[in-house]
Amino acid sequence: MTSQEVIAFAKTQGVSMVDFRFTDLLGAWHRFSVPLVELHEGVFEEGLAFDGSSIKGWCGVEASDMMLVPDSTTAFIDPFLQHKTLGLICTVHEPITREAYARCPRALAQRAMSYIQGLSYADTAYFGPEAEFFMFDQARFGSRTEGAFYEIDSAEGSWNTGAPKCSPDGYQISAQGGYLPVLPFDRGIDIRQTMVKVMMELGLHIEREHHEVATAGQSEISLRYDTLLRMADQMMLYKYVARNVAVQHGKTVTFMPKPLYDTNGSGMHVHVSLWKKDIPLMAGDLYAGLSQEALWFIGGLLKHAPAFSAICNPSNNSYKRLVPGYEAPVNLTYSARNRSAVCRIPVGAASPKARRIELRSPDPSANCYLALSAIVLAGIDGIENKIDPGMPMEQNLYKLSAEARAHVPTLPESLKEAIEALEADHTFLLKGNIFSKDLIRVFTDMKKAEYDAIRRRPHPYEYMLYYGI
């Protein structure tokens, strides 16, 4: 909708408040609202002022004035607020220059879109992230000087077969036995379908929903592919809806990559393809129906994956999922069909338009504005420098011997290693002034602080291992 159409729509819908949403560097949504009478066409051009000094990773008090410029095409009616509220997703701008703020993730994604449109061989990148999450009955946790704990519960959790507190009925799901079950094992069907219904009402194109492999309510709702900016906006709505629908049903959703020990973690496999004037660039007559450009794209992904892991797997918890030999792919190779490789080429559909690359390492703790931009820039660098991805690997990489595994490069094993890789390899992100050295510095400084916060604290399991030594 245009700005005029948004204002008219809000009036016909009986809207009383207008919510302005924006995203910080870590991927969290923030907002403030104004009465509908304060919304006029000038707001869509000039924006609304706010104080950005309290947003993590942004300006200090010496340069705190910022402007939120709403995107009229993102308008939606918030389904959760008591008073009828129009939501608008915004980009942050500098108040003096009126230029987009360099540390605004959405502005960064807009720059990435413009850069792709200016390429000689492509003008559009499509993305299809598959974000998984857990839906628990309750989550309790705390960390203090004298102690730390967490406790998760789920009626379908494998540990509850003999627990009287949840009236066990024998239909609990085993640790890796949760893929595509029916009732009564999958207790979250109705809630997930409610999430789908709300998402579709907000304009998201949903392809499917289902229970995932892990016990205790691991779920996935798949979005149909879209362009970079629209997909990142949709992922913000996706998380917002999933969390709030869960709360309405007395549940809680987490996008932590590895909230439970000894069962699968949650990934966010990202499907990506490049196009030029409605012609798919990835389709060809080489390996798995790929073009030479697609193979070079894979070469770029494999080369830069250690660096962009800090962006696509940005939490300490991410690396409890990315463990060699377990359920998540860490081996920097590619293959058709083989889900143990970091890059997979789906071959289920014969159409050239369906030819794409699936990057399986990212997880849903990532800020999608940053992550999707970093992924496509790595692939573009592969095309422009004709980076050879090497030979594909068809065997199950989870079952490689230690000797064979030693010859296959892998992703970083910790957030610290990923940060160091990003600091050593980020030139590919600076093209088109999409990422800036300043943003990378601020981002890595924030992540170093997170790493230190974990490194300096005793882990509860250390008491099991070492208390009596």
Question: How does this model look, in words?
Answer:
The chain is an alpha+beta fold and 469 residues long. It folds into 2 domains: 3-101, Ubiquitin-like (UB roll); 124-466, Glutamine synthetase/guanido kinase, catalytic domain (Creatine Kinase, Chain A, domain 2). The chain is built from 12 helices and 18 strands. It has helices spanning 3-12, 41-46, 105-117, 189-201, 228-248, 292-312, 318-321, 368-384, 402-405, 415-424, 437-455, 460-466, and strands at residues 17-23, 29-35, 48-51, 65-70, 76-77, 85-93, 124-136, 138-144, 147-153, 206-211, 218-223, 226-227, 252-254, 268-276, 279-280, 331-336, 341-345, 357-359. Strands 7, 10, 11, 12, 13, 14, 15, 16, 17 and 18 form a 10-stranded mixed beta sheet that branches. Strands 1, 2, 3, 4, 5 and 6 form a 6-stranded mixed beta sheet that branches. Strand 5 (76-77) and strand 6 (85-93) form a beta hairpin. The longest helix has 21 residues, at 228-248. The chain is globular, with a radius of gyration of 23 Å. It starts with a helix and ends with a helix. The mean pLDDT is 94.
Q: Which CATH class of the largest domain is shown?
A: Alpha Beta
Helix content: 25-40%
Number of strands: 18
Based on the coordinates given, report the CATH architecture of the largest domain: 2-Layer Sandwich
Average pLDDT figure: 94
Percent range for β-strand residues:
15-25%
Query: Segments where pLDDT lies below 50 for 5+ residues?
Result: none
Using only CA atoms, what is the Rg? Answer: 23 Å
How far apart the termini lie comes to 67 Å
Morphology: globular
